[in-house]
Amino acid sequence: MSVLLKSFQYKAWANKRTLEAIKRIDSNEFPSTISFVKQQLNHMIIVEELFKARLMGDETPHKATNTTTLPSIGELERRIETSDAWYHSYASQLQDQHEELVTFQFVDGLQGSMSRAEILFHIINHGTYHRGAIGHALDLCSVAHPADTYTVFIHAAEPDRRLAR
Fold first, then answer.
1. What CA–CA distance (Å, rounded) separates 44 from 66?
2. What letters, b where the CB count within 10 A reaches 16 and e where it falls short, cover 32-50?
3. SS3 18
4. Among 145, 149, 151, 150, which Cα is nearest to 133's?
5. How many angstroms from the chain centroid is the CA of residue 17?
6. Cα–Cα distance between 45 and 41 in angstroms, integer?
7. What CA–CA distance (Å, rounded) separates 103 from 151?
8. For residue range 36-86, what is the model confidence (pLDDT) as tens digits?
9. How far apart are CA 23 and CA 68, in angstroms?
């Protein structure tokens, strides 16, 4: 399996662990943390939906990279899971088009172009950044944030790698 496909498996695994931790936040005691977490997740999924549209040549589904009204955690979780599955499927079907440039307009009106592989890398990297911010927020409200590094994932997915060779 290519490192790209494993990276999308990792992304889905890390998102799931983060979402499970978020559900342990006491929303009555930490309402501002819940708002922050929802804002981070909302931004993450909007960016993924924007880049999906760019990869597919579809109309831009959002006018900004966040919204003033935030969806519920449940709605965000559903959209993230759907996006994770879509990106894994897309990456698995991408054959010799990795370096093909996609030209698009960012929501701020600036033009951009990235290869399909660069877009996929951005999606993986972007989520990692925001899960880190969420992890810090979890710490501040005494909810243990999950270890979600690639090394933890790969050894959980393939425990034989822990064996001395």
1. 9
2. ebbebbbebbbbbbbbbbb
3. helix
4. 145
5. 12
6. 6
7. 34
8. 999 999 999 999 999 999 999 999 999 999 999 999 999 999 999 999 999
9. 22
Using CA atoms of 51, 52, 53, 55 in order, give the dihedral in degrees to the nearest 10.
80
- Cα 54 from Cα 61, distance rounded (Å): 10
pLDDT mean over 7-35: 96
Amino acid at site 127: G
Confidence of residue 165 (pLDDT cuts 50, 70, 90): low
Classified as helix, coil or strand, 131 is helix
Structure tokens at 118: 């660069």
Q: Is the pTM of this model over 0.90?
A: yes
Residue 31 burial (10 A CB sphere; 0-12, 13-18, 19+): exposed
To the nearest whole number, what is the mean pLDDT of the chain?
94
Q: Residue 24: its pLDDT value, please?
A: 96
Q: Maximum distance among all alpha carbons in the chain?
A: 53
Report how far Cα 4 is from the mean position of its chain's Cα atoms: 14
Share of the chain above pLDDT 90, in %: 81
Tokens of 60: 């831009």
**Inter-axis angle of helices 3-22 and 73-93, nearest 10:** 170
